[in-house]
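HOLO CASE FILE
Compound: coenzyme A
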Amino acid sequence: MSLESALDEYPKELRLRDGLAVQARPLEPDDHAAFHRFFIALPPPELLYIKHRVTEPDVVRTWCESIDLGRNLPLLAWNGETIVGVCTLHQNLGGWKRHIGRVSVHVHPQFRGRGLAQALVGEIVDIARACSLEKLEAEFIGTQDGAMKVFGLIGFSELTRLPAYVKDMQAITHDYVLMGLDLLTDDEFAGMG
Ligand SMILES: CC(C)(COP(=O)(O)OP(=O)(O)OC[C@H]1O[C@@H](n2cnc3c(N)ncnc32)[C@H](O)[C@@H]1OP(=O)(O)O)[C@@H](O)C(=O)NCCC(=O)NCCS
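Model generated. Tokens follow.
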């Protein structure tokens, strides 16, 4: 299966634990205002850990103007006109890490604790398999215990932890944690020898 055929499934309804139904679909060019509103709704301390200045409208507008889902696939969850969660699959199209996708996830503060992050990461894992990726990774700073728990529930495990290795946007040092998930089945491993 290809990325294109995997994306044919969207928009797709995801039903959360409390019964709320959200619509999941990839980012589209006209989403920039809603996407910017999503980021400014995040608590300021969490923004310190995001690698881009997402509260600046131009940053989000530029993303929406240059969508390349084969490289960066933001899967958005919508509740009506509001984006309530986003899980992104980043792919390297060449080089040493071309078989490894990177996943990140953020959920709107008012929509947490309902299984939305778990549902979105699960969708991205399925899409990654459809793209024939062999592994997924996710990066964290040492204080993101809740997020690491979400990924752990999906089957990711800690690959490495480097003490006091990264700095947030206020130059405060944190541990760096890399988690990973193997997407190959046992049969596929057996066939690789
Ligand atoms: C981490 C985050 C994505 C979780 O979103 P969410 O939709 O609330 O997560 P879910 O409801 O799917 O959680 C699934 C399980 O993960 C665990 N979990 C989630 N958030 C947790 C937290 N803050 N602390 C402890 N455990 C947590 C729980 O076991 C939860 O199951 P439960 O509710 O039955 O106990 C959200 O809090 C967020 O956006 N945080 C800021 C961004 C971030 O840290 N992203 C990760 C970088 S890749």
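CASE NOTES: Residues 3-136 form a domain with the Aminopeptidase fold (CATH 3.40.630.30). Residues 46, 104-107, 112-118, 138, 140, 144-147, 149-150, 153 surround coenzyme A (CB under 6 Å).
CLOSED: yes
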